[in-house]
TrEMBL record:
Signal peptide: none annotated. The keyword Iron does not apply. CDD domains: INT_Cre_C (cd00799). GO terms for molecular function: DNA binding. Keywords: DNA integration, DNA recombination, DNA-binding. PANTHER family: P CELL-TYPE AGGLUTINATION PROTEIN MAP4-LIKE-RELATED, PHAGE_INTEGRASE DOMAIN-CONTAINING PROTEIN. Residues 118-314 form the Tyr recombinase domain. One of its GO terms (biological process) is DNA recombination. Residues 12-92 form the Core-binding (CB) domain. This is Integrase. Gene3D superfamilies: 1.10.150.130, Intergrase catalytic core. Pfam families: Phage_int_SAM_1, Phage_integrase.
Length: 314
């Protein structure tokens, strides 16, 4: 139960090639999350002496109820159900997660959990300037962190996309950068997507050049761990590190770190663009959202007070 290759191999008649393609059907980030979720479910089942694979609908409903009692959020439970479903399908079993008992149990959990999720704050352009003002660009780490904040904002990157960038993915052009995003949440097949990043007042090109030159990077991953002695490592920075960096500079800027996450850079660009009156579809060119409704949510929040109905009398 430690990995999906093991789960897939349990299905009778699957060749090694088929097993490999089953595993590759989901992104590495999704597999990591699913692996944890399936292990939690498997441990819960083992403690109670019931089968995890294949599981019954009653077992899954009991698991959901138990998790809800422990304070696990409905969104996390949704992902755990998806992981359990994936594990069953990969092992060649019919999934019990579609059973009505499971869906009704989850619906009841959602209705009883009426605490509104607190959304993370958007690192809009004004907040971004406050944060990058605290990057010590006399050090390699400061140069790297400044590039992470600026590029993460200007490209509306997801944290997994940001850490996956390589030197070869970025092309300098007269107006800024062309960046190839090789794979993303909305591009699971890896077709790739190229976005344009304006150099602008943030001087994205200059910040990138300064970091790459100081780090002596000509190939491979752009964002890497740096030792306390200022030495750059070979491995790629983890996506969790992006969140830590955002929070660190939010604190330095006098902001509440708990309000910010790695997603704040992405939402910050979209919100700032909406406030500036940018075309919705031009925003989507950068953010790569598939749903207009999702981006409209950002736009609506940014324009709540614009042309307010009460302007003439309040």
């Amino acid at each position: 139960m430690n990995n999906f290759q093991t789960i897939a191999s349990k299905a009778d008649g699957l060749s090694e090639d088929v097993q490999r393609f089953v595993v590759e059907a989901t992104s590495s980030a999704t597999r990591r999350a699913y692996r944890v979720d399936v292990q939690i479910f498997a441990t819960w089942c083992e403690e109670r002496g019931v089968l995890a694979i294949p599981a019954t609908a009653m077992t899954i409903a009991d698991f959901l109820a138990s998790q809800a009692q422990e304070g696990i959020s409905p969104s996390t439970l949704n992902r755990r159900i998806a992981a359990i479903r994936y594990a069953h399908e990969a092992a060649g079993y019919e999934t019990p997660t579609t059973n009505k008992l499971v869906s009704i149990t989850l619906k009841g959990i959602r209705r009883s959990n009426r605490v509104r999720t607190r959304k993370k704050a958007a690192a809009t352009i004004d907040k971004l300037y406050q944060m990058i003002a605290h990057c010590n660009t006399k050090t390699l780490q400061g140069k790297r962190d400044k590039l992470i904040l600026i590029l993460g904002f200007a490209g509306a990157f997801r944290r997994s996309e940001l850490v996956a960038l390589t030197v070869a993915d970025i092309q300098e052009v007269p107006d800024g950068l062309k960046v190839l995003i090789q794979k993303s949440k909305t591009d699971q097949e890896g077709a790739g997507h190229t976005i344009a990043i304006l150099n602008g007042r943030l001087n994205v090109v200059g910040v990138l050049q300064d970091y790459l030159k100081t780090a002596n990077l000509t190939e491979g991953s752009i964002f890497r761990p740096i030792t306390k002695y200022g030495k750059i490592r070979k491995q790629t920075l983890t996506d969790r590190s992006i969140a830590d960096i955002v929070k660190r500079y939010a604190t330095a800027a006098g902001l509440n770190a708990e309000d910010f996450s790695a997603h704040s850079l992405r939402s910050g660009f979209i919100t700032t663009a909406a406030e500036a009156g940018a075309n919705l579809f031009k925003i989507m060119d950068i953010s790569r959202h598939k749903s207009v409704q999702t981006v409209q949510g950002y736009v609506r929040n940014a324009e709540l007070f614009k042309n307010h109905a009460g302007n003439s009398f309040l």
